[in-house]
Amino acid sequence: MDKAAFNIEEELNKLPAKPGVYLMHDRDDAIIYVGKAVILRNRVRSYFRESTKKTLKIQQMVKHIAWFEYVVTDSEMEALVLENNLIKENQPKYNTMLKDDKTYPYIKVTVADDFPRIVMCRRVIKDGAKYFGPFTSGEAVRETIDLLRKAYKIRSCRMSITAGEEKKGAERKCLYYHMGQCDAPCDGMADEEEYRSNVEHVLDFLGGDHRQVVADLTAKMQKASDELEFERAMEYRDLIENVRKVSEKQKITDTGGDNRDVIAIARNEESVIIQMFFIRNGRIVGREHYYMQHAADEATEDILSAFLMQFYLGAPFVPKEILLPFEPSQAELISEWMSRQMSSKVSLVVPVKGKKEKLVQLAQENAQIKLDQDVEKLKRNLERTTGASEEIARLLELSGLHRMEAYDISNISGFESVGSMVVFEDGRPKTNEYRKFRIKSVEGPNDYASMEEVLTRRFEHGLEEREASSEPGKFSKFPDLILMDGGKGQVNVCEEVLSRLGLDIPVCGMVKDDNHRTRGLYYQNRELPIDRTSEGFHLITRIQDEAHRFAITFHRKLRSGHQVHSLLDDIPGIGPKRRRALMKAFDSLDDIKRATEEELQEVEGFNAAAAKSVYDFFHKSS
Length: 622
Prior knowledge:
By secondary structure, the protein is of the alpha+beta class.
């Protein structure tokens, strides 16, 4: 299809009156929206009718549609599945999206094997094994498996072992046997009946009955103690304590021992949070919250519907019952799809009384608590960032303060002096705009001269970028405020550079006390006191520390590569032979720096390009 010649009106007339999925593309050919329709002709045409009421998000989306395509399906069910597959694959900008795309761990017991093993997995397949989960913590799953292996010596290896099979002597007992965590069925040492009994205890434990495990371990602890094997008795004691910890993590709920998921939703003007409880065999084995993107002006029923499809699409396990706070859009269709996926009935239930309704309420309370926490966290972050910037602006009587740049110099005995420039916008570090400078024109430990070089190079380069192109360069943005790591001296250096370049940017010094802690700001020839408990003060301290850290890190990186390094090594196009020729032709580095291009071209082995490279290195911004 020729996208450039795509005529939306003509293509709308070609749409079939059949179910299917449509994909909206922008001018860059990116998929910006995926939807499904019972009748493609009616649904797609509705986007382009002025009389159709649209949400703000859809209005914005329609403005960016350059062309569309569609896929016809045999049924609405097929369209539903295809729609969500395409959403998951393409992450369209205007679709309501499940932000978290997690896979959860399960505990798998291979009960069909002669000597079953216990392992962690992330997929549930029909292989005759028993699965427990999902769990929200992989660490908790590993702890549980480790506990059961120690308690019942259940293997985890992938070796194929058949009961009664004659061993050929080639098998070797692994480390777990020597650690007392496996009875080595691979070597014919495990009793099949006893092993199977232990597996049953493991299944009971994973099913929620921890009493038998505690009883078994207590008996073993007592036996070891009676036989004066106190070290082994202590091991059993620790295992019993671990069992109790695992039991506490799995809150018991009186739900008849069934498997179900409980889902609730909380939202405000900016955020939507979904809270889930995973109940397996009547116990809450985990809970998790999720964020939905691009959902601000979507109906809550549609958000819940999108979550159900995106979360359970491709899920290894769907419980027979999902408890919800209200009925989602397309509820019957989603339930039918889930039932087909699991080959058994899956019900979407909105309980109105009893224990199930209380479970939904509990999930709803947790969702609202998480949303409130996020709002409070956002408020604190705004106070620490934007609020702190505004506080500094008020202190300095600036009309606005969006971008701040801070500078620092680092050197050891003047060697390999480097400068750092860090950038904060609205109180947040913008690390991709940090810049590093290697000092080229200063010999010895002279921080003022080094700072002058850094500032001159930074703003000269910025002015050149502004004059050369309308496209922004890496130095073309100028700050609303410059922060210098020091007092009057550093501020004066900066103001002299700015004055020479014809720039009018406020400059402020970050003054430290005798203990090297920030005590105030030096601005317009006076030191301004600042409340050390304020967010503005904390932001200034963070900026100062970041400028210092960035300079030190760069300096250490340079020192780690070599102990002695010539500045000439960094000149493009100048290799060892030409470097030796330079050192032979000139008495010092300063003489090389002062040399003209004509003088450099007279050096043995130099041409015009090499001479220009050396000259530019010492005289142009970089």
